[in-house]
Design a protein that fits this description.
Pfam families: Glyco_hydro_43 (PF04616). This is Family 43 glycosylhydrolase. The chain is mainly β. The chain has a single domain, classed as Tachylectin-2, Chain A (5 Propeller), CATH 2.115.10.20. Helix content is 8%, strand content 43%. The structure holds beta-L-arabinofuranose. The site of beta-L-arabinofuranose has 13 residues, from strand 2 and strand 14. Beta-L-arabinofuranose binds next to strand 2 and strand 14.
């Protein structure tokens, strides 16, 4: 009788202990983690791809998709967010957005994205996949929203913003509606650019979750994918992946609606990654070029990519100098 009681008591305490342990590890998974950057790739503890950068006040944010597969194809179930005030000390904020947070989305296609701030909210534009009423799959663009740049983000529409059917008159492939980049012009008009093979643009309404007017095909020389729009002074810059394996090229205009004048290569092939997705932002007065390569070994490659950061410089005439990708990154000595 006594022995049975002791055994039951031991089982009870073991069960309580296991519960406490699992709650502790869950809360660790859901807590921000911090680390110091010391060279490129910037993030080494996970494979990270398709960086988008956002500056809010004194904080630099990087959003990326996570490559979780074994290097044989894209397996990207979720996006990640990192923040830093000095580009050396970084915080990873847990679980900002997953592919399955879009109820209409299928598969594990947490592809390239960009987050942009407007009216106190943060809009997360993503590339994902959609199935139409006939069951045909095609890449699509969705938008999620949050009150904080680190989320958690929620689907802002409940439907895709752009689907493959909207662009088949220009490009009859199922993967051209990817890689959104959003730019808000000085007059407050927001524009969405995206594409693969063909670049497109469309106006966004003030609410940032509805389009306005027609889709405009954007004429760019040798466009592959991954457009990024930024402005410096009076010039607009549209940089994009070109060729395959990809380099980054760019064009300039004095109008967000173009025409865009091709200015050449901005970044060379990115090591052992076929893709070279990038973002350009200014932070505390300096310009930065954020991109990915396959630099984290042993698995690094086209489907196990890693985000890097280097400085970006301009020539006196406003054109951009070719980026020098470095192992040292912003930290002087390679480690
Ligand atoms: O990560 C999947 C796709 O690869 C992105 O959407 C493209 O820009 C390329 O980097």
């Amino acid at each position: 009788m006594k022995l049975t009681f002791v055994l039951i008591a031991i089982q009870f305490f073991a069960f309580k202990f296991a519960l406490a342990q699992s709650a502790e590890s869950k809360s660790a998974e859901n807590s921000p983690s911090t680390f110091q950057a010391s060279g490129n790739p910037l993030f080494k503890h996970k494979y990270t791809a398709d960086p988008a950068a956002l500056v809010v006040g004194d904080t630099f944010y990087i959003y990326a998709g996570q490559d979780t597969g074994e290097g044989k194809g894209y397996e990207m179930p979720n996006w990640l967010v990192f923040s830093s005030k000095d580009l050396t000390n970084w915080t990873e904020h847990p679980n900002p957005l997953r592919n399955k947070d879009f109820s209409w989305s299928v598969g594990q296609t947490s592809w390239a994205s960009q987050v942009i701030a407007r009216n106190g909210k943060y809009y997360f534009y993503v590339s994902t996949e959609h199935k139409n009423e006939n069951g045909k799959k095609g890449k699509a663009i969705g938008v999620a929203v949050a009150d904080s740049p680190v989320g958690p983000f929620k689907d802002a529409k409940g439907t895709a913003l752009i689907t493959n059917e909207m662009t088949t008159r220009w490009t009859n492939i199922s993967w051209d509606d990817i890689d959104p980049t959003v730019y808000i012009d000085d007059d407050g008009q927001a524009y969405l650019f995206w594409g693969n093979t063909q670049c497109y643009s469309i106006k966004l309404k003030e609410n940032m979750i509805e389009t306005e007017g027609d889709i405009i095909p954007v004429n760019l020389l040798k466009f592959t994918e991954a457009p990024w729009v930024h402005k410096k002074g009076k010039s607009y810059y549209l940089s994009f992946a070109t060729g395959f394996p990809e380099k980054i090229a760019y064009a300039m205009s004095d109008n967000i609606n173009g025409p865009w004048a091709y200015k050449g290569i901005l970044n060379e092939l990115s090591g052992n990654s076929n893709t070279n997705h990038h973002a350009i932002v200014q932070f505390k007065g300096d310009w930065y070029f954020v991109y990915h390569n396959g630099g984290v070994q042993t698995g690094g490659g086209s489907y196990q990519r890693s985000v890097c950061i280097d400085r970006l410089y301009y020539n006196k005439d406003g054109t951009m100098k070719r980026v020098q990708m470095t192992s040292e990154g912003l930290w002087g000595k390679a480690k």
